Amino acid sequence: MEFALKYRKAQDIAIFLKTFLPWLNLANRKGANFARGVLEYLIDGMEVGNRELFIHEVNEHLSSELRGETMTLAEQWKQEGRQEGEQRGLRAGETAILNRQLKLRFREIPADYQKRIEQADAETLLKWGDQILTANSLEEVFV
Question: Where are the domains of the chain?
Answer without folding.
Answer: 2-62, 88-141
